[in-house]
Design goal:
Number of domains: 1
Radius of gyration: 19 Å
Order of helices and strands: HHHH
Structural class: mainly alpha
Distance between the termini: 19 Å
Strand content: under 5%
C-alpha cells in the first residue's frame, strides 16, 4: 500500500510540475509568437486553461492527500529515533509545508482570479480587450514561474525527508 501511495504521489507531482513547465516555457511563448489574431489567441488560451486547471487541481488534491498518508509512518519512525533527527525532520517538513501552502494559495488565485477573466472574455461575458488579455497573460506567466520554483523547492525538500 505504501508503494502505491508513493507512486500516486510521484505521478501527481510529475503532472503538476510538468504541466506548469510545459505551459510556461512552451505553450505561452509559442502562442504569443505564432498567433497575431487576438481573438484566436484568447480562444486557444481559454480552451487550454480550462483543461489545464481541471487536471492541475485534481493532481494537487491527490498530491496533498497522498503526501499526508505517506508522511505518517515517517513521522512515527522519526519520533522513535534521536531527538536531533526528529528536529531536522520537522525543520525540513516545515519548510516543505510552507512551500506547499504557498502553491495551494497561488494555484486557485491564478485560476479564479486570472484565468476566469480570460475564459469569460472568450465566452462573451466580458468584452474582448487585447490589453487585458496581454496583462492577465503576463501575470499568469509570472505566477506560473513562481509556482515552478516553489514546486522545485518542494521536490528538493522531499528528497531530504
Amino acid at each position: 500500500m505504501r508503494t502505491a501511495i508513493l507512486v500516486l504521489h510521484t505521478l501527481t507531482m510529475v503532472v503538476v510540475l510538468g504541466g506548469y513547465i510545459f505551459l510556461s516555457l512552451f505553450w505561452w511563448p509559442v502562442l504569443q509568437r505564432t498567433l497575431t489574431d487576438g481573438p484566436v489567441l484568447l480562444r486557444c488560451l481559454s480552451q487550454t486553461l480550462r483543461r489545464f486547471f481541471t487536471v492541475v487541481l485534481l493532481a494537487l488534491t491527490l498530491a496533498l492527500m497522498t503526501g499526508g498518508l505517506y508522511l505518517l509512518p515517517d513521522a512515527r519512525l522519526m519520533r522513535a529515533s534521536s531527538e536531533a533527527a526528529l528536529n531536522d525532520f520537522y525543520i525540513v517538513l516545515g519548510l516543505k509545508l510552507a512551500a506547499v501552502f504557498l502553491v495551494m494559495l497561488l494555484v486557485p488565485m491564478q485560476l479564479f482570479g486570472m484565468a476566469f477573466r480570460l475564459t469569460r472574455m472568450d465566452a462573451g461575458i466580458y468584452p474582448y480587450d487585447a490589453t487585458v488579455v496581454q496583462r492577465v497573460s503576463q501575470r499568469m506567466q509570472t505566477v506560473s514561474y513562481l509556482i515552478i520554483i516553489l514546486l522545485t523547492l518542494v521536490l528538493i525538500l522531499s528528497m531530504q525527508l
